[in-house]
Amino acid sequence: MNPLPKFRSLALMLLLSACSLSPNGTAATPRPEPPSTGPRSAGLIPITVMAASSLTGPFTEIAKDFESTHWNSKVLFDFAGSQQLAQQLANGAPADVFASASPQYMDTVVMSGRIQAGGVKTFARNRLVVITPASNPAGLKNLTDLARPGLKLILAAQEVPVGQYSLTFLEKAAVDPAFPPGFKDRVLANVVSYEPDDKTVVTKVALGEADAGIVYSSDVFGASAANLVSLAIPDALNVIANYPIAVVQDSQTPGLAPDFVGFVLGPQGQAILGKYGFVPVTSP
Fold first, then answer.
1. pTM over 0.85
2. DSSP E strands, 54-127
3. List of domains in the chain
């Protein structure tokens, strides 16, 4: 018995099974593989975002949502004081996006030539609030209590945006007849430390290392809120902080970096910022 026909039939079946045919009888074009649903690892395009430390919570969540719609990206953060980040960028530090807590430090980077002025957008706003430990050991009831002798107060350093805004609040209060003479000087005499950013002020006050601190209202959201009590600062004395964002001109991801900025300014990014206590730029 000749086995050759049987082998020919088998070869033909294998050939047909290897070639999928479309309904019209032509060979189907192979479909591209979808993005892996497994752990995100090698092969992703990194986007380095330098952002003010007060943005840690919302930007971390924004990055997760951004990556879910831009599956080839991986957002990497450098959170620190805006003044520190601006100096690093002005000195040539590599980055793709800069988000500052103050226009002043965005201007520093613009003047260095790393960012175009026309590309700067305000994406959120913030305001000041006085915080105490949850137990309120000093028994603060109103803003005038900040001048009480012996009170331990922590502020951010003057070169930090929230530190600058805190001094502006004290200057406004100093000329307000509702506050006692010498209010600003008496409050500053109670300062036990000046910190590099708002997050450090929050941490130290929550741990009871001071009786009070001045930070952003967005700092009293999330996990830290349970360990803090806040005291509102009236609009007339408060400072509204504008947060600008921009793509760095020599970004290594000229396609994805603008997409990230657009995502922050879009409905999803703005909703996340609002959830963390920021004032979205799209809100009435």
1. no
2. 73-80, 97-99, 121-126
3. 45-125+242-280 (3.40.190.10), 128-232 (3.40.190.10)
